[in-house]
């Protein structure tokens, strides 16, 4: 048991450069306190003491500012960074090594009881500040969700989701579900070298326009040569008329 507790403390030190030592993390990190209290309330929930479990979860919310339903499943080394305002629903399933920042909601959109209403986070997922993940779908291992994103559908492993509603990006970086490795952990889900899909689409339109303008310039040169040779008697009046029409069209 104590090995598991210290394992979680050490994982926080790895992911938070502000954490100086174990004592500071144990005494000052409300996200850690919320997870520890949830372990107890989840145990009580599973053995049928649901009212007591709910009371303990309410006490935890009062103490930490983090609301976790006692029915939610939380894996090992989960880090609720800053923590204030996090809401985790009843059927949420959070995998090992996930990092969740302040203001995140892992919520449900269904009103039916006894069904999977809340999301499942794979291993090593990073959910950034203010993000809303709503629905009973899966966020793949190593995925990242940007700040204030609203995620309404499944995210593939290793992808980054940004925007409202969230759009999927595929980072050109190696992915790892093991957030204990500093090389792959991205604070606040920030992924370098990734373009927004809207900006990529605009870039494609600009490139196509430049290519089209180059082709038009080549066409104008060809027409100019034909116009110069139109003085030749062998060029018919119909050809001259067609060349004139094309030149007028290019000027528009």
From TrEMBL:
A matching Pfam family: Hexapep
Pathway: Amino-acid biosynthesis; L-cysteine biosynthesis; L-cysteine from L-serine: step 1/2
Main enzyme class: transferase
Assigned GO CC terms: cytoplasm
Entry EC no(s): 2.3.1.30
Recorded catalytic activity of this chain's protein: L-serine + acetyl-CoA = O-acetyl-L-serine + CoA
GO molecular function: serine O-acetyltransferase activity
Keywords assigned: Acyltransferase, Amino-acid biosynthesis, Cysteine biosynthesis, Cytoplasm, Repeat, Transferase
Location of the protein in the cell: Cytoplasm
InterPro entries noted in UniProt: Hexapep (IPR001451), LbH_SAT (IPR045304), Ser_AcTrfase_N_sf (IPR042122), Ser_O-AcTrfase (IPR005881), Serine_acetyltransferase (IPR053376), Trimer_LpxA-like_sf (IPR011004)
GO terms, biological process: cysteine biosynthetic process from serine
Superkingdom assignment: Bacteria
Record NCBIfam families: cysE (TIGR01172), EPS_EpsC (NF041874)
PANTHER family: SERINE ACETYLTRANSFERASE (PTHR42811)
Family from the record: Belongs to the transferase hexapeptide repeat family.
Name of protein: Serine acetyltransferase
């Amino acid at each position: 048991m104590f090995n598991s507790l210290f394992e979680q403390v050490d994982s926080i030190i790895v992911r938070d450069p502000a954490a100086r030592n174990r004592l500071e993390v144990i005494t000052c990190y409300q996200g850690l306190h919320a997870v520890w209290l949830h372990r107890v309330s989840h145990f009580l929930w599973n053995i049928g003491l649901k009212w007591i479990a709910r009371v303990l979860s309410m006490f935890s919310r009062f103490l930490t500012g983090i609301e976790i339903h006692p029915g939610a499943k939380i894996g090992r080394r989960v880090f609720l960074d800053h923590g204030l305002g996090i809401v985790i629903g009843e059927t949420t399933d959070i995998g090992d090594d996930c990092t969740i920042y302040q203001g995140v909601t892992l919520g449900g959109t269904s009103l039916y009881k006894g069904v999977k209403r809340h999301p499942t986070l794979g291993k090593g997922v990073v959910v950034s500040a203010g993000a809303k993940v709503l629905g009973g779908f899966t966020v793949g291992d190593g995925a990242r969700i940007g700040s204030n994103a609203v995620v309404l559908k499944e995210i593939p492993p290793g992808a980054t989701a940004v925007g409202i509603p969230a759009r999927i990006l595929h980072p050109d970086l190696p992915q790892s579900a093991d957030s204990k490795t500093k090389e792959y952990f991205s604070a606040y889900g920030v992924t370098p070298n990734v373009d927004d899909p809207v900006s990529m689409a605009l870039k494609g339109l600009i490139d196509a326009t430049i290519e089209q303008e180059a082709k038009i310039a080549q066409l104008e040169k060809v027409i100019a040569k034909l116009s110069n040779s139109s003085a030749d008697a062998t060029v018919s009046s119909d050809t001259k008329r067609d060349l004139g029409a094309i030149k007028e069209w290019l000027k528009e």
